[in-house]
Amino acid sequence: MTPVHAGGWPLTDRRRPLRRIADAAHRGDVFGVVVSGCAGMGKTRLLTEAMHRAVKQGTAALWGAAAIPDVAAAPGRPVLCLDDVHLLDGPAVTEALRLATSGAAFVLCTASSEEPGPPPLAALNASDGFTQLTLEPLSCEGIAELLAEVLGGQVDGALVHWSWRFSGGNPMLLRRLVEDMGDRAALGEKHGLWRLERWWTPGWRLSAPELAKLRDLDPEARSVAQGLALCEPWETGLAELVFDADALAAVDGAGLLDAEVVQRRHRLRLRDPLCARVLADTVQPLHARKVHRRLADALEGIGARRRGDGARLAAGRRGPGRARRTWRVGDGHPRFLFPSCLLRTRKPGPGVSDTSLSW
């Protein structure tokens, strides 16, 4: 029996941040809220839900940097929602900060805790008028509550622990875990209790749907995708110097890349952050060293004049360090990591194919 859940997953274990956002919006001395966290923690989902609740209460809501000029025409004190504010250019963040501090808008934004943003973002974070919310991984109890709500019944303790172990409390990964278990007939219900019906090992396709597209690419293009994940984001011109142009075009043609403009720089990154995590975590040392060396050579060739180029050049010459450890479970819990734990410490069961990223 496969679980079915229509629409988006419930915001179980995220109700407290929603209440804090609602409380902050009704206080005149609070300019806005900055929601931070790593990829997959549900920042955009929380932002969308907060906006919908504001609209239901009769408050005008605007979405995105493109709506900043419309604040003046909105009635009352509108809610200005800015997703991934760390990717916006400096002037947009500065204007949003001005609107917030002047009382013209209540600014609700999300930011990655893993990437630096434009300089004005530091001023926004340091402002006493902004409430800082950090989305932490779901606890084991939170996962049990969420699974019970999604599946519509009680959940076996072993299933809860298994889900917590392999997701590290990351909501996006948890959803993909449950979908993967359902697709592979590993999840079933008996007498009102959901449990694992058979031994199940997460497949590589769990990490991101985009990984499936890589199997259709030639080896050179797959190698480029791993190199992009290792040092993203990439300035477009820099990526064209480091990687083969045809292979880079093949990765783009497969719909794996997103283009963005940040502070007048045209940048490329993999579309799915979890796909990027898996690829970066599985790069072979020699390939990683080769990418870092080419990056350093390209930076030297263009003069390394832009902000941050010096640090990237030094890192490129130094070569790759220790592998990144992602989504560490909080203190007091056994420390399981994703995705490396799935790819390096697995026990294939009967009838289960190998789950490594070997093409």
Give a quick precis of the structure.
The protein is of the alpha/beta class and 359 residues long. It has 15 helices and 11 strands.
Rounded to the nearest angstrom, the distance between the terminal CA atoms is: 31 Å
Give a quick account of the main beta sheet: strands, pairing sense, barrel closure: 5 strands, parallel
Low-confidence segments, ≥5 residues, pLDDT <50? 1-6, 322-359
Please report which band the strand proportion falls in: under 5%, 5-15%, 15-25%, 25-35%, 35-45% or over 45%: 5-15%
Number of strands: 11
| Number of separate helices | 15
Radius of gyration: 22 Å
SSE ordering = HEHEEHEHEHEHHEEHHEHHEEHHHH
Mean pLDDT reading:
76
By helix and strand content, what is the structural category? Answer: alpha/beta
Strand order of the largest sheet: 2-3-4-1-5
Helical coverage, percent range: 40-55%
Cα shape: flat
Describe the structure.
The protein is of the alpha/beta class and about 350 residues long. Helices cover about 45% and strands about 15% of the residues. It is built from 15 helices and eleven strands. It has a five-stranded parallel beta sheet, sandwiched between helices. A three-stranded mixed beta sheet has the order 6-8-7. A three-stranded antiparallel beta sheet has the order 9-11-10. The protein is flat and about 55 Å long. The protein starts with 14 loop residues before the first helix and ends in a 15-residue tail after the last helix. Residues about 1-5 and about 320-359 have low confidence and may be disordered.
